[in-house]
Amino acid sequence: AGSAILQGKRVLVTAGGTIERIDPVRYITNDSSGKMGYAIAEEAARMGAQVTLVSGPTALPVPKGCQLVPVKSALDMREAVLSRLDASDLIIKAAAVADYRPAVIEPQKIKKKSDSLTLELVKNPDILQEIGTLKKEQFVVGFAAETEKLDEHALDKLQRKNCDLIVGNDVSQEGAGFSGDTNAVRIFDRNGLVEALPVQSKQAVARRLLEIAAARMKPKR
Ligand code: PMT
C-alpha cells in the first residue's frame, strides 16, 4: 500500500484528448489515449486524495476511487475545470487539449461536392493559462508535449502559463508520449530541471510526479 501523502487533498486531473466536432458525424482529435492522466488519477487516489478526473473520450475504465467528469470538446473541458478550481488543492493537466476547433459546427452532414474543401479553425481558450491567472493557493502542474527543444519549450510554457511544475514530454522519444503504457519525462520548476525520469511505466511516472508535487505543496491551515 502506498503512503497517504495526499490525504485530505482534493486533486483535479485532466486526461485524454478533446474532440472538436465538424458536423454530426465527423470530428478532429489527437492521439491521446488518456493513460497518463488516468495513471495519475489512480495513484493520487491510492495516496489518499479525493480525485476528480475530467476526461475526454477514452477506452479506459474509471480508476478506483476517482470521480469521473466526462467531457468532449476543449470548451466542455474548460467549463468542467474552471467550475472546480476553487474546490481543488492540486491540479494536474495531462490532457491533450485541441489548440483549434472548427469555426462552425455544421448542423447537417457536409456533402461531398468540390475537389477541395477548406475547414476554418479558430483558437480554443488555453485552459492551463486561465488557471495560471486565476489560481490562489492551488498547486498547478502542466504538461508540455514536444517534438523538439523539449527543455526550452517546456520552460517557456511553465512561465507563460504560470505553473508550479511542468512535465516536459518528448513525444518523439521511443517508449514515451502518446498511447503506450510507458513514458519518459523531464520535470521542471521555475529554476530549471527538478528531475528526469527515464522510460518507465506511466504508473511509475505518475507516482514520482505526485511525490514531487506533494512535497512542494503548502500544508493546509
Ligand atoms: O494520454 P496518453 O496517450 O497517455 O498520452 C499522454 C500525453 C502525451 C497526452 C501526456 O503525457 C501529455 O504530454 N499531455 C499534454 C499534451 C498537450 O497537449 O501538451 P501541450 O504542450 O499542447 O499543452 C501544454 C499544456 O497546456 C498541457 O498541460 C495542456 O493540457 C494545456 N492546454 C493546452 C491547450 C489548451 N487549449 N488548453 C490547455 O489547458
TrEMBL record:
Q: Which reaction does it catalyse?
A: (R)-4'-phosphopantothenate + L-cysteine + CTP = N-[(R)-4-phosphopantothenoyl]-L-cysteine + CMP + diphosphate + H(+); N-[(R)-4-phosphopantothenoyl]-L-cysteine + H(+) = (R)-4'-phosphopantetheine + CO2
Q: How is the cofactor bound?
A: Binds 1 FMN per subunit.
Residue span(s) of domain DNA/pantothenate metabolism flavoprotein C-terminal: 6-213
EC assignment: 4.1.1.36, 6.3.2.5
Q: Where is this region: Phosphopantothenate--cysteine ligase?
A: 11-221
Coiled-coil residues are none
Record-stated family: In the N-terminal section; belongs to the HFCD (homo-oligomeric flavin containing Cys decarboxylase) superfamily.
According to UniProt, the name of this protein is Coenzyme A biosynthesis bifunctional protein CoaBC
Q: Which organism is it from?
A: Paenibacillus aestuarii
Q: Which gene encodes it?
A: coaBC
Q: Which stretch of the full sequence is covered here?
A: 182 to 402 of 402
